[in-house]
Amino acid sequence: MSLDLSALALSLACPQEKALEPGADLWVLSDLEGSEWSRKLDWYLNFQLVRSKTHKTLEQSSELQEVIKLWEFDPPGVEVSKQLPLMVASSDLLPNHSTVLIPLGGDVKTWAKRVFELWKQLDEPSLRVFLPKDIDAKSFGMAWPGSANDLTGALVAEI
């Protein structure tokens, strides 16, 4: 039995006019640079996504460093990678529970795998994926590690 890729793409697609309607708890975006949807939704999120790019972790004060040295304490280090997903609780701002920004950082297969792994870690909430400009529903659906049924009506093409 051959897989009809056009039918697959149609079954996975969420029409753009319904993209901002309720229906999915988790919305996934790619880089702000690679998606008009990401920039548009960031406006509704009070620019939390763009502000996160310029956030710098606070450094320990000299007084705290002295206390640590005096007590011979080795605090655990917290390093934040720019490649980690950024999750924003967005239920007060958008008709969903959470919005996640997952940097593209590679090809469609790599990005689909990262989206899938996060979705699994979050216990498979209902999902809407706003595709970056160079990824269409068919290629994302083919790269998705899970069942195509997971994505039915969940993929929104770039504006």
Characterize this entry briefly.
The protein is of the alpha/beta class.
Describe the structure.
There is one protein chain. This protein starts with a helix and ends with a strand. It has helices spanning about 5-10, 35-45, 50-55, 60-70, 110-120, 135-145; strands at about 25-30, 85-90, 100, 125-130, 155. The chain is α/β, with parallel strands linked by helices and about 160 residues long. The longest helix has 14 residues, at about 110-120. It is built from six helices and five strands; from the N terminus they run H-E-H-H-H-E-E-H-E-H-E. A five-stranded mixed beta sheet has the order 2-3-1-4-5, covered by helices on one side. Helix 1 (about 5-10) crosses helix 6 and helix 5 (about 110-120) packs across helix 6. Helices cover about 35% and strands about 10% of the residues. The chain is elongated, with a radius of gyration of 19 Å. The model has no long low-confidence stretch (mean pLDDT about 85).
What descriptive keywords fit this protein?
5-stranded mixed β-sheet, alpha/beta, 159 residues, single chain, 5 strands, elongated
Biggest sheet overview: 5 strands, mixed
- Poorly predicted parts: none
Assign the structural class, choosing from mainly alpha, mainly beta, alpha/beta, alpha+beta, or little secondary structure. Answer: alpha/beta
Number of strands: 5
Order of helices and strands: HEHHHEEHEHE
* Distance separating the two termini: 34 Å
How many separate helices? 6
Shape: elongated
> Percentage of helical residues?
25-40%
Strand order of the largest sheet: 2-3-1-4-5
Radius of gyration: 19 Å
